[in-house]
Design brief:
Oligomer: homodimer
Strand content of chain A: 15-25%
Distance between the termini of chain A: 35 Å
Shape of chain A: globular
Helix content of chain A: 40-55%
CATH superfamily of the largest domain in chain A: Glutamine synthetase/guanido kinase, catalytic domain
Structural class of chain A: alpha+beta
Number of domains of chain A: 2
Radius of gyration of chain A: 21 Å
CATH topology of the largest domain in chain A: Creatine Kinase, Chain A, domain 2
Order of helices and strands of chain A: HEHEHHEEEHEEEHHEEHHHHH
Largest interface: A-B, 22 and 22 residues
Largest sheet of chain A: 8 strands, antiparallel
CATH class of the largest domain in chain A: Alpha Beta
Number of strands of chain A: 10
C-alpha cells in the first residue's frame, strides 16, 4: 500500500455509522509518548531525530495491530501529499511543516495512525466513527502495551508519562470528539454552551484543531487536563460532557423542526441546490453548505443521500484531495471549478 | 369567458417565440383616444364617466377584432382581480386604483386590450411576442379605424389627436418593447446605453412602466415624442434604436461566453439550483433568479427548459397570480411558500 492508495480507501471514521453519528462525526484518542533518555523532538538535532526514528520504527512494526501499516517519511513527501494527510486528519500542521526525520504510520482504514517526531517522539491516535471512546480506548491501550514491550518510555512515578509540553504530562492522553452542531449555532445557543465548558475541564476547538475556525458548524471537544486522573476517568468526563452537548443539539433540532420547519427546510434545500448546481465554489462555502445538507439528512428532510456520501464530500472537496484525484497541482480557480464538478457529479446533478 | 379563464389561457406575448425573442420579450403599441366634446376622464364627474363608458362600449363591441372580447368593469372586480390584471400588463396601476366607471376590454390570447376611462377615454393596446411592431401596428390601425367608424375622436387638424396629457398629443401613440438585458447589466454597460437614449428620443422604463424598477434586468423602451412625425416614423425610430441595443446585448453575451463562461455558467446554474430547491422565496428574488435562468436558456447553457416556461414563471410567481391559482387571499409568508412550491414543481425538482 502506498500513499495514493489512501485516497479511495474505505476510511473507518468517514463511514458515518457509529453511535449517535447524526451529531458525533468521530471519536479520537491519542497518546503522547517519548523514548527515555533521548531529547524531545524539538530539542533534538538532525542526528538525534534520526536516532529516534530508527529506534521507534521496529517497535511500531512489531505491533500486531500495525502489520499492514503504511510507513511514510515526511521528507519523502511532496507538499501536496502532506497537505493531503493533514486534510485526512492523519498528521498535524506542525508535523507537516517540520524538518528532519519525521514520519507517520497509518493502519488500514486509517483507524490507527502514529506521528513520529512531532512534538513528542510518538503521537499514537485511534479514530472511530461516531461516539465510541470505548473501542478507541480498548485499541489504543493494546497498541501502547505492545510498543512498550520493546521501548522504554520516559515515565516518572510521580508525574506519569513525561511529554514535551507540560499540558500533556501524566496520561499523555487526549480524548476528543468531532461534533456537528448546526442547530445550536442556528439558535444562537452555541456560545453559552462553549462558555460552560471551561468549568467542566473540557476544551473546544475548530475543524482542524487548536486555533482553527469552527467551519461548517464542526467543533472538537477534548479533555483539558491530562494529569491527576486515570485515563478512564478523563474519558468518562469528556463522555459525560459530550452527552450533554448532544442532548442540547438534539433538543435544538427538535425546536427548529417544530417552530421553524419551513425556514430550516428552505435553508437546507437551497444549500443542496447550490452544491448540486454551482460551477465554481470555494472550499469554505462548500463546507458550510454541506453542513446544512448534512443537517437535512440527519433531520430526515433530505432522504436520498446518506451520511457516508456527505462525509466523503467534506473530505474530497478539500484542496489537496482535489489535486490528488487530478494527480496535478491546480490553481485556486482550477480547484474551485474541479470542486464544483465533483459536487455536481456526486450529488447527481444531470446538467453539466 | 370570465376573468378567471384568463389565468391559464394561452397568452400570446408569453409564448416566447416571436422575432429575436432571446432578447425581446414583447412589442407593444398603444393609442390614446378621446371622444370629442366630452371631458377627459380625470375631469369627468361620476355621471360623465358613466356616459363615456356607455358611449364607447358598443363602438368597441362593433369591432370585428374584439368579437369574443372580455368586458370587465373595474368596479365589479376585487382588489386581487385588479392586481392580477396589472401583473398581466392589461391595466395600469392608475387604472386599477381609480374610481367610477372604469373598464377594460381584453381579446382572446390577450393580444388586444382597451382601458376605458384611464387617463384618456380609450387606451387601446396590442401586444405581440418578440420584436414585432409590424404586426402590432397593422392590427392596432385596423381596430382604431373600426372604432372611428362609430365614434368621433377629439382631433385637431393642427395637433392631431388630443389627449389628457400633452406628452401624448399628436399620434397618441406609444410603441414600446420589453427587453431582457442581463449581459449589458453584468458587464456594467447598461448605464452608458441608457444615457445615450435621451438624444435618440427613446425613453427607458422598468418592468411595470414609468417610475418602476428594472427588476430582473428587464427594460421597456418607447418613443419619447408623439407629435410632429407620422406613426410609422416614430415606430421606425424606436425600432432602429432597439436594434442597436439588441446588437449591444448580443455582443455583451458573446463576450461573456468567450471571456467568462465559467463564471456566467456558475451564476446561471446557481440561480437555477436555488429556484428548484427553495421552500420560501420572495417575488423579487424569483424575478432576479429567473432572469439568470432565462439568460442560460437563451445562451444555450440550460437546454431542458424553454422560454415559454420561464415567461410563464415570471408571471405566475407574482402575488396576485399565486392567489388566483389558490383562489384565496394569502399572507406574504404564505405567498413566499406557494411561490417556492410552484417553482419546484414547474422546474421538476423531485424533492418536496
Amino acid at each position: 500500500m502506498g500513499l495514493d492508495d489512501l485516497i479511495y480507501q474505505n476510511t473507518e471514521w468517514l463511514k458515518g455509522t457509529g453511535p449517535q453519528s447524526n451529531i458525533v462525526i468521530s471519536s479520537r484518542i491519542r497518546l503522547a509518548r517519548n523514548v527515555e533518555k533521548l531529547p524531545f523532538s524539538h530539542w533534538a538535532d538532525e542526528q538525534k531525530e534520526k536516532e529516534i526514528l530508527v529506534l521507534v520504527q521496529p517497535a511500531i512494526q512489531s505491533s500486531n495491530y500495525l502489520k499492514n501499516m503504511l510507513f511514510l517519511k515526511l521528507s519523502d513527501l511532496s507538499r501536496l501529499d502532506k497537505q493531503f494527510l493533514l486534510e485526512r486528519h492523519l498528521i498535524s500542521r506542525e508535523h507537516a511543516e517540520g524538518k528532519n526525520s519525521k514520519a507517520v504510520v497509518i493502519s488500514e482504514k486509517e483507524i490507527i495512525s502514529i506521528m513520529i517526531n512531532e512534538e513528542d517522539h510518538l503521537r499514537v491516535q485511534v479514530l472511530q466513527s461516531g461516539f465510541n471512546f470505548t473501542e478507541a480506548w480498548r485499541l489504543i491501550s493494546k497498541i501502547d502495551e505492545e510498543i512498550q514491550a520493546t521501548l522504554n518510555f520516559a515515565f516518572s512515578s510521580r508525574w506519569g508519562y513525561l511529554t514535551a509540553c507540560p499540558t500533556n504530562v501524566g496520561t499523555g492522553m487526549r480524548a476528543s470528539v468531532m461534533l456537528h452542531l448546526p442547530a445550536l449555532v442556528m439558535t444562537k445557543q452555541i456560545s453559552r454552551v462553549l462558555q460552560a465548558l471551561d468549568k467542566l475541564s473540557v476544551a473546544a476547538r475548530g475543524l482542524y484543531g487548536e486555533g482553527t475556525e469552527a467551519l461548517g458548524n464542526f467543533f472538537q471537544f477534548s479533555n483539558q487536563i491530562t494529569l491527576g486522573h486515570t485515563e478512564e476517568d478523563l474519558i468518562d468526563n469528556v463522555e459525560r460532557v459530550v452527552k450533554q452537548i448532544v442532548t442540547h443539539e438534539t433538543e435544538a433540532r427538535r425546536v427548529l423542526m417544530n417552530q421553524n420547519k419551513k425556514r430550516v427546510s428552505d435553508r437546507i434545500w437551497r444549500s443542496y441546490g447550490t452544491l448540486k448546481n454551482a460551477h465554481i465554489i470555494s472550499s469554505s462555502e462548500t463546507i458550510n453548505l454541506l453542513s446544512m445538507v448534512r443537517l437535512g439528512v440527519d433531520m430526515g428532510i433530505i432522504k436520498n443521500i446518506d451520511r457516508a456520501k456527505i462525509n466523503k464530500l467534506f473530505i474530497f472537496s478539500q484542496p489537496a484531495h482535489l489535486q490528488k484525484m487530478e494527480n496535478k497541482i491546480l490553481t485556486p480557480m482550477q480547484r474551485d471549478i474541479k470542486r464544483a464538478d465533483l459536487l455536481r457529479k456526486e450529488l447527481g446533478g444531470k446538467d453539466v
